[in-house]
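Hey,
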Amino acid sequence: MKPRAPDSGAGAPQARWRLWLPGLLVLFALPLFTSSPFHMHLAVLICLNIIFVNGLSLLSRTGQLSFCHAAFMGMGAYASVIATTQWHAPFLLSVALGVAAAAAVAFLLGAVILRLQGVYFVLVTFCFGELFRLFLLEGGSYTGGANGIANIPPASILGLAFDTKTSFYVLAAVCAFASIVLLIALFRTPQGTALDAVGDNQELAEASGIGIQRTQMFAFVLGSAMAGFAGALLAHYLGFVSPESFNQHISVAAIVMLVIGGRSSVLGPILGALIMTPLPELFRSAIETQNILYGITLILVLKFLPGGLVGIAAKLRKKGAKA
C-alpha cells in the first residue's frame, strides 16, 4: 500500500494549517458584520452542516458510505428535545444526551452491519434511515408523530440565552471550528492514519495489524455522534423538529457536500457546506430545479474533479512543481 501524502490526512501540512486556521477564523467572523437576517440564517446552517458533514467524512475515509446519516442527526435532535421539553433538562445536558443516544445506536447498528461492504452496506443504511423516519411518525406523544415537536426552548448556557440568529451563530461557529480542529488533531494520530489505511487497502491494512471492523466502528460511532450533536443544535435553533426534517434527502445532501468539497481532506466538508448549503435556500421555491442542479453539479464534479474542489489546489501545486 502506497502511503498517503502527509497533506491528505488533515488536508494540508502542519505549517500550512497554521495559515489555514487563522483564515478560517476570519471566515467565521465575516457573518457578524452582516445586518441581513437571511444571510445570518444561512451562516448558521453552514456551520451546522460543517459539523454534520465532518461526521460523514470520517466513515467515508474508511471506504464506507452511509445513507442513514440524517437518522443519527434526528436521534440527536429528538433525544435532546425530549430531554428539554419533557424532562426539563438544561441545554448542555440535553445535547449530551442527544450525542450519547446517536453514538449508542450507531454502536449497536455498526456491530451488525459493518461486516457488509459496498452496495450492501449502502442499502442497509438506506433502509435503517427509512425505519427511523417511520419510527418518528409512529412515536406518538414522545415524537409528536407527523406534527413533530414545536416550541422548543432556545439554547442557554449558564443563563446566557442564544435566542437570536446572531447569538446562535456565535455558538454554531465555535462548535463548527472545534469540529474542524478535532479532525485535524485526529488525522495526526495513529488512529487517524488507520482510518485512511483502511480506506486505501483493507487487506494490506489488516495484514499490518489494523483491525478493519474496529477502525470502521470508531469512525461510525464518532461520525454519528457528531451528526447527533449537529441535530441537537439544529433543533434548538429552529425551535421545531419533525420526521421530514431528517429524511433521506438530508443524507443525500450531506453526501453531495462531501463529494463536491473533497472526501480525503478536512477542508472538503467546509467547502462543500459553504457552497451547497445556500443553494437549496435560494431555490426553495423550485424543488425540481433544486434536484436538477444537485444532479448536474455532482456529475460535473465527479467527471472533472474526482477529488472534489480541494483537488484543485493539488493540481495547481503539481503544475507549479512541473513549471
